[in-house]
Design a protein that fits this description.
The protein has 9 helices and no strands.
Length: 191
């Protein structure tokens, strides 16, 4: 009976840590992504640093993954491509380790979606396309298909962009605002 009680308490603590990692990861990612249009100015990093400190206090690879993801996003906002690549590689290693343990990284985003988004932001379109292609093969989300369409478009690949937008339009979880983007791009696809 005592062992059962200990197991229940441990499971509850683990769930609490998972929820806290998710919360800090999503808030930190949002704060880091908000920096991008502003150039990632150091004086604007306060909200990001708060989330990074919260993640520092949490155990496990999920917190380390979220930390690397947020730092990669800040590097992208500051146009620090090499630094971003280092954080992305670290995040990928952590994600691979987590996947081997049965729980792949997902907060703030799965690694390929995250890499695609950040590479697209810093105008590395071929790398963004490659990351989004991996994402659509592993877990084909609306975000992954839209990212693949945008990267393909930036590379001048009309056929690839049209195919990805078509896939995105039939994927669950498509944000309403993206529907307009798809409709407008569909006009290019008909010619």
């Amino acid at each position: 009976m005592r062992l059962l009680l200990i197991a229940v308490v441990m499971a509850t603590l683990s769930q609490d840590v998972d929820r806290e990692v998710q919360r800090a990861a999503m808030e930190g990612w949002g704060a880091a992504r908000a920096l991008a249009p502003k150039g990632g100015a150091l004086e604007l990093l306060g909200p990001v640093n708060l989330r990074l400190r919260a993640l520092d206090g949490l155990p496990g690879n999920a917190a380390r993954y979220a930390d690397a993801a947020i730092r990669a996003a800040v590097s992208a906002a500051q146009e620090e491509r090499e630094e971003m690549a280092v954080f992305l590689a670290h995040a990928r290693d952590l994600s691979d380790t987590m996947a081997l343990a049965g729980a792949p990284a997902q907060w703030p985003l799965p690694v390929d979606e995250m890499e695609g988004e950040l590479r697209l932001e810093v105008d590395q379109y071929a790398e963004a396309r490659d990351a989004y292609q991996r994402a659509t093969k592993l877990k084909p989300t609306a975000n992954a298909w839209i990212g693949l369409a945008r990267a393909s478009d930036r590379l001048g690949d009309l056929v690839g962009a049209c195919a990805a937008y078509t896939q995105a339009s039939s994927t669950a979880g498509l944000p309403a605002a993206v529907g307009i983007e798809i409709s407008l791009y569909a006009l290019k696809c008909k010619f």
